[in-house]
Structure formats: structure tokens, C-alpha cells
Amino acid sequence: MPNEIKGFVLDDFIKKYRPSNSTSPEINVSIKPDVNYLNIRGSVNDRNFLEHAESILQQALPLEFNTFTVGDHHIYWLGPNEWLVVTDFDLDSILQKISKKIDLYATNQTGGLTQLILRGNCVRSLLARGCTLDVSEGNFLIGQCAQTGLSKAGILLALTDSSPSFNLIVRRSFAEYVGLWLEQSGSEFGINFVQEH
Amino acid sequence: MQINRLKSGGQINRDKTLRFTFNGQSYKGYLGDTLASALLANGVDIVGRSFKYHRPRGIVGSGAEEPNAIFQIGSGATTEAGMRATQVELYDGLVAKSEKGWPSLSFDIAEVNDWCSKLFGAGFYYKTFMYPAKFWKIYEYFLRRMAGLGAAPREPDPDYYNHQNTHCDVLVVGAGPAGLMAALSAGKSGAKVIIADDQANFGGSLLASKELIEGLTADKWVSSQLQMLEELPNVTCLSRSTVFGYYDYNFLTINERCTNHLSEFTEGHVRQKLWRVRAKRVVLAQGAFERPLVFPNNDRPGVMLASAVSNYINRYGVLPGKNPILFTNNDSAYQAAIDMKIAGAKSVLVVDSRSEQPSDMVDEARNNGIELQFDAVIRNVIGHTKVKGVEISTYDSGSNTCAAQATKRTCDLLIYSGGWSPAVHLHSQSGGINKWDDNRHCFVPHTTKQASFSIGSCNGTWSLEDCLKEGIACGRDVAGSLNLKVNDINLPITKKIKLNPMMPLWQVIAENSVENLPKQFLDYQNDTTVSDIYLAVREGYTGIEHVKRYTALGFGTDQGKLGNINGMAILAIALGKPIAEIGTTTFRPAYTPVSFGVCAGEDIGEMFEPTRKTAIHDFHTESKAPFEIVGQWLRPWYFPKDDEDMSSAVIRECLATRSSLGIMDASTLGKIDVCGKDAVTFLEKIYTHDVAKMAVGQCAYGVMLGEDGMIKDDGVMARLGENHFYLTTTTGGAATVMSWLEQWLQTEWPHLTVYLTSLTDQLSTIALVGPNSRRVLQKLVDADLSNDNFPFMKTCKSEIAGLKVDLFRVSFSGELAFEINVNSNFALYIWNLLMVTGRDFEITPYGTETMHVLRAEKGFIIVGQDTDGSINPHDAGLGWLVSKEKDFIGKRSLERVDSIRSDRKQLVGLLSVDNKSVIPEGAQLIEKKSPSGPTPMYGHVSSSYFSPVLGHPIALALIESGRNRIGDKLLAISSDAKAIEVTIAKPIFYDPKGERQHAK
After folding, report:
1. Which CATH architecture has domain A10-34+111-195?
2. Please, are residues B164 and A129 in contact by the beta-carbon 8 Å criterion?
3. Residues of B in contact with A150 (CB under 8 A)
4. CA nearest B55: which of B93, B120, B116, B110?
């Protein structure tokens, strides 16, 4: 697929974004647009489903609530019958492997979601400004994820390392709001955005 | 001249002189002053006029309880109203104005109310300004002016406020002796602690105390404790932070004032912060309020609480009088007399209603040369704009009577204390119950509803040693209950003081004819007096909540912090009941007023709510389309060419679409993927039509009803596979429908295997509309779009430029039309491709307005515009969609007698008789010749447009028995009272046979 015909959700935000004067921002946000998202549905009590999911993804679904696993893909637990696969793999090759005989349903969400990676010492403080979940150290641990809110937008939040680094996944139509919110609320700490290619 | 400033002492910085103005007059104070202490230092006696009688008033308290010194601070955009001078820290350039008093504080013309006060009893306003009803607007204007409740700024607030969520093990409210010990004890045991205090400095009552703790002066000891707290990484200390709300699940809100003490406006800084705290345990240690005593003219400027006097002397180095008299019923107030004497008051007299008994405080007073008079009370105050003297009578506490003879004595300050009332506000807000304690004569926290603990004087514990002890024990218990390893701290050594118990004295003069006495004030802020309570009782009010509303007792911004308990006690006396049976009124957030700015935080301007844009938004902005906000989405309204106005643009867009080709961004539609083996069973229950009968590849228009049988949402759905469906919802209803469906699935039908996944963001929808749509689309797709292969209401998969798309042959315009669903990342690319490919047919982008006209010409409804929650499918002419063979949500309601009445409002068309007038939406429909009396209204106009293709206006309306009245003429009356004659018509105006959308 020729990349130039893709229109990513935060292109416009990055175009308009003026880096702050802060030379050493406390918070760095990288926007990683070109990844694929696959929503998987099926019953956690259905052994066939779980095995089939593992065989097509080559990675098991996390069964512990509010956790994610990292392998070829990041797979996030969203609910007892719902997972989100975030991957660089081509989705068609995965979707083709789905057997009609198994109760496994998948929807492509690549055009509907986007991901921001937040790094820096003050990220937890910044998130606490808009997020009612306790994201403090000792409570929100590496490998945990949660669907929560950031001010008035719904987000999926996951902690990937102790730097700390959070993955924030948001619906396309709320991404600009989240970008603006981070820019406004993060100005207190110094915040910088970059787009990864 | 700071005439009342002491030469030394206080916690103020005398090297930092600050200038400020009050009512235009310039004064000086010091860093560390409050506005109130600075005014007192400058000898300002009158700070306000009372609410109803416009009596002159002075400063009474020194904290949150202050009812009189309530000011407008600052000017212009940054002005704030209703600020208590006792809590406003002085800064250089502060501008303060009293909120009442015209033309001036010393001469207020409305004081005439006081002279005629016999007319102005409780309920005066309710009784007087009832008639004539239409005059209320005039009354209101003058009453509001007279009441003087401050002014809101007219400009936008330039300040910056934000919110902070936080979770902790323990939130300690109040940093007095008990709170400090609790925080330290829990903090040293490793608990995550937040301790908040509304004052600039921690210490609470210790700030003005002369007691020694561990051999240190109280303020030095507080500093050492604070240092220990600050060294603990798990403890957050918040000063200038008022915990103002206690809600369910131990959720509390704190208003931190970050820069209010620096200046009226501090560029580049957060002015205030709203902390949203979720605490595992809450320790309430807010202290207690000193209670006034109730006697005639107890509101004169120069009457002040004993604790306030000690605060002004010891914290601010201000001596509020030279010849004070102290009136008390308890020992704690003696401290104020001693402080006065030591600070240099010439003569100090204590009038104590009790008989003399051994007490350390009495001894100390006597040793300091203070004159003491026992078994005596103050029965009146002399002086108008300032206390000049008092009348003292002997008092018999046994019979609760004071002698009629009085001796006069001059003074310049009357200090009073009626004991203490624990600040049970937050405990009450949390759902906790208070009970009257007959030994301590106050309401104390009784049962708790949440994980909270009251300690120290807000628990009715008075002595310093007991407060410290309670704090330590509480911190230890809390840490233990959180399974932390308890780290004990030692009880600080304090001096034991022998005290006499206080004696309740609710009403100095218990004569029957309270009306004949000068006013005895209970609530200074609302001018509620003892006689008001008696009047309320005479008029039949017995419950405290009713008396509160009738007399306005405790209704001010101080929430009756001073007056409530006295008021309840007087009510008890008037009713002849014990106080315990009266109970307290309900305490509600906020504890002290909170600014709107901090409530709004950062959610203002463009961040007030999210703005959602479609993936094709860039095209719309480049085309300079104005936008319409629909359910947070920005939707292009119309696409003006050159200098076109909206009506010309819409006419052009409509005609182009009807005659050749239009294109519309329909991406904001809610889109839901439904799959799972029970998908059909589920959707059969949701929609009214026969979902099971739909073939794979078939589309259908469907409506879903609420349990009341009324239309909830509508949209086209498609069957993509045996167990796979795609639903669309209205733009504004997307989230509501999704949660509605999930609710049924999760709570009522968990046995069904159905998965709902939103595709609203994933897919963009482009509608290609008009007789040439097939020709253009066929150029881009391999799929055979001929009518035989792809008839109306079918869906198929295809590709455009190698990109996967879903095609739907559906129409919201009545034209031959296709909707193209594509991954949003490619939507703009596909849109632009269609624009290029359609150029030969003058492809015309159109917005929501043209969409509305086109659909109205066909009589297609918009849920929420042509329905309002009271319209069922039969009313909307959609009875053909309702299956008789199956059950669905709302079916039972739809069969009620009322649902099938023939005179319900029904959707019909309207044409204006003159064929020219566009009938205003919302216009009411009435008979041409109205009968006398109230005019029957048959319905209203729900949609109305000029139809370019028909060349005349059209409208849709909901009219009683409308379908039986086709051809009838009515009048449409709009809010501007213009009448337009209209004819009722069928609601389909264009292509009634539907030939165009079925075009071969």
C-alpha cells in the first residue's frame, strides 16, 4: 500500500504543533501512526477459541484482567470477551487464517485507533490531572492496562516500562482532543511531541 | 496609621509593609496579615451592613466563620465576590470593597429598615412581595440591589485553574494538634498521607496558643512537627487548601489556593487547584467554632469572639481594644482576657454567667490583674456604630433569670464566648449522624457511614493533651487497619490545666416578650433574630428544616457556622423540647464558597468538550464550508461557491444532486458490528422489523423503540453474513445506542452469544447521490452495479484503487445513491478520487442542510427532530416496519390503548397556502377560527424548508389525528406571533412512488 495516500489522524495536529521553548521537556510524546489494530472477540470459556486465537496470532491472549502481553504483537485485555491486538504485521495475513468454524470474530480497527507513547518522570502526574484511575507507582504496574478516561475522552492506557513509558490508545475522532489536552496540561511540566515513522 | 498594632509580637513580617485600599481609602499592613487583621490594626470598625436591617457590622471572627466582613476583592476581570476578609491574605495593592452600604458604610440609607423592623419579621419578603405577581421583576431588582450580594466580573477570567486526581491511604483534614499527630503517626507507619489545612500555616488553634509543648512554644513545636512531616516522602502537605466536599466512596474535594495570597493576578501560574481525592481512610480534624452568646444588640461593631481576639493579638500583633469586657460561660474564653491584659489593655473585666469555682484559668486571670464578676450577664449593648458600653445584670443560673436592674459600664470592645461547636460539617456531608451531647453541650459525630474518623475538637475533645492523644491513636489505628507496620510516636508533654465545665446559656434574657427587647441576633449574615424563631413557631413551624427556610437561619454563605446551634437551642426552648430532639440541619458542600473558575478547571474554551472531526475534514475546511456541531462532531453545513449565501448554496446543491450527482460525508453515523451465533435472536428483540427474514447481502431500514414503545433511534442495517450484521445509528445517538444494546446484552440476555464492536471511527462513509452516481462509481469498482445485480437495499464488498470498500445501495434522499464504507485512513483519498471521477457530471459536495432538504422532500424523519420521545412508529407513519409476528423491546407498550389512539399526534406534511412562506420550525398549529377561551393547539412544525426541486416551501409536522385531516387548513403561529395559513398534506412531497431510488 502506498503510504502517501494514508491520512493519519494526528497529521494535522503535528502540522499545527509548535514545540515549546522548553529545552529539556519532562514529558516526551511520540505519535506512532502506522501500526495495525485488530479487535478480537470470543469467549474466554471456549478452549477452541483460545487455541485458535493463539494459532493465528502466534501469541496467546492474556487472560488476566487488565493486563497485556508483548510478543510479535502487543495484545491488550479489554474485557472478558474482548482483546485488542496492536501489531506491525499485515492484518490480512492474520484475518485469512480465521476459521469460520470457530466462534472467533475479528474487526480491523486500524483506521479507528491511534497510539501515543508518553515517556518521562512526570507522566504519572500529568495523567493524574485528567485520569481518575490511580496511575501512581506501586498501583499501576508494568504489564497492566486499563480502559479509562482522560478528561472527556475514553482511552486505553498501558504501562510498558519503568522509565515510565505509557502507551495511550485513543479513538481516531478523540485523538486531536487528547493531543490538545496533553499539550495544555503538560505545559506545566514541559512537553514535546514527535511523530515516528 | 495602624493605631491598634502592637509594638512587637505576632507572626507578621514588619519589614514588609503592604499597601491596600478598603472602600477607596488607603491603608497599610504587613506581610502575614489577613485583610481582617490589617483593617483592625488600622482601627476600621464598620466593615459591612447587614442583609435585611442594614445595621452597621464589624469583624466578629478570624476564620471561616466570619459573617460580616465579606468583601468584593479586586476589580475588572479578576474580581471576586463574597470573600471573607478573615481568610484573605494581604498582598501589596489589594483592593477591597464592602458589598453593602449605600451611600456609605457609616451612613446607609436603607437602615430605615432597622427603624421599621417590627414590620420586617421572618417571612416578610414572602408575604409582602407576592402581589401583584407581575411586579416581581421590579421588586427583585431593588431587593437584589439592597441585599448587596457582590458582583460577578463581566469579562472572561484570565486566570488558569486546574484539577488533580489523587489517591491516598489517609486524608487528614485540618492541621491542628490532632490532625498533625494523626498525619505523623500514620505517615511514620508508611501510609500515603495527604494533610490539608485551609490556613496559610499549619497549626490550627496552636497558632494563637501560649501553651508550651515539649518545652517549646506552640508555634516552634508546630514547625518541628511540620518539618518531620515534610521529610516523609509518603506525606503531602497542602496549606491554603480547603477540603470543601465529602462525597460517597470516600471521595473528597480540596480547593487549593496557589497564588491568591500573592496578587490579584499572577501571570503564568495556576491560581487555584481542585484536588479530587479518593482516600482509603479519612481523618476529620477540622476543629471547632466558638459560639456567640445571644443578648440584645449582640451585633454591634466591636463585639468579637474570644478566640478571634487571641488570634489577632498573638498571630497578628493587633490589639482590637483598650478597655474590653469579656462575657463568657466557659473557661477557654479567659485566655482572650489574659492575652488582652498582657498585650497592654488598660482594664479588663470578665463577666461570667457561672458562679466562681476553682480553676487554673480564673487564677491566672486574677493574677494578671483582671477584674472578675461572677453570676452576671450582659443584658444590652450600648453604642450604634461601635460598642460604647454594656448593661450588666446579676444572673441566677439555677432559675435562668437575670435581674431587671443593670449597671452600665463603658468599654470599647465586647468579647464573648458561648462555648464551642465542633465543625461536624464534613462528617455530616459524608452521611454520618451527629448526636447532642448533654455533658459537652454540643453536637458531636455519632455514627459514620464511610471509613472516616473524627478527632480533636471536631469530635468534642477540648484539652490539648486529649487532642494530641486522640491524633496519635487515630493515626495508629488507621495504619493498622491498612495492614501497615505501626510506628508509634510518643505523646508530647503538655501542661495539665484544671478547668471548670461550661454552663449552657442559650438566651440571656428568657422573658416571654422577646419582641419587646432590642434585637438578639442568631445569624448575622441573614439577620435572623431570636424573635424570628418565636414567630416561626407561632406560625406553626416546628421542624428545624422548616424553621431554617422560613427564617433563613444558616442560609448564608457561612452556612450558619456561628448561629446555627444557638438557633436550634432557641427553637428547642420555644417548643419546650430537648435540643437532642431538634437535630441539625443538613450540611452540604461546599464548606466555604468555591470559585466557578476552579470548578471548571481546564475544561474551558475549545477544551470544553471534545471536537470530533471526520477523516475527510481537510476537504471541508479547504472548501470553506461552515460547520454544524452534531453530537460533538463537526459536520459541514453547506459548501458555498464564491460569495454564495446559505440559501443559494443549498438550492444549488439540492438541484445538482437531484439532476446529476452529489457527494456527502456521512462518516459521523454511528456504526456497530454485530456478530455471534445469537446475533439474529438479539436483533429481532431490538428492532421492530423481521430481521430473521433478511437475506445475506440485504439492507433494511429499522427503528428501535424504548420500553415505552417510542422511537429511540433509527438507521439502515445490513446483513453481512449468517450471524454478522452491520448497524448504523444516528450521529448523536451512537454512544447511547451502543450502551443501550450492551445493557440488554449484559444484564437481561447474558445467555446470548453476541459481540458488539464500534466501527464508528474505523470506517468513513461517503454517500454518492444522484442519477449519475452509478455511472461514476462503476468507473472505479469491479463489482457489477447494474440494477439487476445490485438492486436497491443491497450491500456488497468491492475495491476502489486496490482499497477494500463496502458498498451499500441505500438512499436518504430518494435518489439513486450509494454509500461507500472505507478504512478512515484512506477516506480522504477515496473522496478526492470520487471528486475527480465525478467531475464530468459536475459532482457537487453537499452538507447537512441539503441533506435535510432532500430527506424532508421524501418525508424521511430525523430522530430527535421529527420525534421527541413521545412518537411511536405508528405516529411516524412507520407502522409497516412493525412486525406482528415476533416480540421486541417496546412491543407491549405499543399495544396499549393509548398507543393506538386515533387522535395521537401523527407525522404529516404541510404546505403554505400562499406557496411562498417558509413556516418556522416549532410553530404551533391552531384552527383558523379559534373558539373563545384557550386556543387548542393541535401540534407543531418539526421540519421546514424551501424545496428547490418543487419550487415551493414544504414542512413536516406532528398533528393530532393528522392523517385524517389531509387537506384541512390550519394556522401556523410562531414565536413572533406571525400566522401562516397552511394545508395539511401527505408527508411525501417528491417522487411518492419511489421510482428514483429504484432506478434501473
Report:
1. 2-Layer Sandwich (3.30)
2. yes
3. none
4. B110
Cα four-point dihedral sign B37, B43, B49, B55: positive
- Which chain B positions have a beta carbon within 8 Å of A131's beta carbon? 165
Rounded CA gap, A107 and B377, in Å? 83
Cβ-defined contact of A105 to B162 (cutoff 8 Å): no
Give the 3-state DSSP-derived string for B566-620, with helices as H, strands as E and coil as C. HHHHHHHHHHCCCHHHHCCCCCCCCCCCCCHHHHHCCCCHHHCCCCECCCCHHHH
Partners of A96 on chain B (C-beta within 8 Å) are none
Q: Which amino acid is at A85?
A: V
- The verdict on a CB contact (< 8 Å) between A176 and B764 is no
- Residues in A closer than 8 angstroms to B278, CB to CB, are 132, 134
Q: How far apart are CA B520 and CA B300, in angstroms?
A: 11
Q: How much is the pLDDT for B141?
A: 77
B824 shares a domain with B713: no
- The last residue of a domain, from among B90, B119, B147: B147
Instruction: Read off φ and ψ for residue B205, nearest 5 degrees.
Output: -65, -20
Does the CB of A183 have a partner CB in chain B at under 8 Å?
Answer: no
Residue B795, SS3 per DSSP: strand
Range B948-972 burial, b when 16+ CB lie within 10 A, else e: bbeeebbbbbbbbbbbebeebebbb
Confidence of residue B510 (pLDDT cuts 50, 70, 90): low
A105, A108, A132: residue with CB nearest B165:
A132
Examine the domain organization and report whether B202 and B53 are in the same domain.
Answer: no
Q: Which domain holds residue B717?
A: 670-758
Residue B801 is predicted with a pLDDT of: 94
Nearest CA in chain A to B832: A5
How far is residue B739 from each of residues B653, B672, B742, B756, measured CA to CA in Å?
A: 36, 11, 5, 10
Q: What pTM was estimated for this model as a whole?
A: 0.91
Fold of the A36-108 domain: Alpha-Beta Plaits (3.30.70)
% of chain B beyond a pLDDT of 70 = 98
Nearest to B821 by CA among B784, B781, B852: B781
Among B162, B612, B738, pick the best mutation site for testing chain A contact (most A Cβ within 10 A).
Answer: B612
Alpha-carbon span B914 to B920, nearest angstrom = 15
Residues of chain A with Cβ-Cβ distance to B613 below 8 Å are 173, 176
* DSSP helix/strand/coil, A115: strand
pLDDT digits (tens, 9 = 90+) for B619-650: 999 999 999 999 899 999 999 999 999 999 99
Alpha-carbon gap, residue B182 to B281, rounded angstroms: 12
For residue B590, cis peptide bond before it (omega within 30 degrees of 0) = yes
Nearest CB to B829 within list A5, A139, A180: A5
